[in-house]
Amino acid sequence: MENIRSGELPTLIFCIVVCQLAGVLGSVFTRSSVHTWYQTLTKPWFTPQGWIITTVWLVLFTLMGLSLFLVYREGLTRVDVRMALGIFAVQLLVNVLWSMVFFGLRWPMGGLAIIAVLWFLIALTILKFWAISREAALLLIPYLLWVCFAAFLNYSIWRLN
Predict the structure, then answer these.
(1) Is this structure's pTM higher than 0.90?
(2) What is the Cα 35 distance to its own chain's centre?
(3) Which of 48, 62, 96, 127 could cross-link to 52 by cystine, CB 3.0-4.6 Å?
């Protein structure tokens, strides 16, 4: 990976903060149900503890911010960069939408539909980022893998309830 120049540090921080803010926004919906409704659900044996989920998301949103930065630094004059960043923005919004639907609306089946769309958008983002920065694309692989796990967990909760 090319070194980050000192003039780029504010942009890097901004990219990470934008992604972390998506996590904060999603947590607003999560917080309203995680200690009430969510506790009443039957969950599969492989459900991670809350602190593990929180830690994983903090790391993933940081990796997403770094990935976003690596693509953004290639320049908004490039059509492929603008397209890739647009898809990235949509998947970030859909990420928040999942929390809104699953926890906010307390609707696991709706969450399952949203997470399927999210998975597709992450995969598409990875493909678009790959053409611009392979490092940026690779940084999103853990996110895609975690969403695969989250989708299976969401499916299992829906089936058990």
Answers:
(1) yes
(2) 22
(3) 48
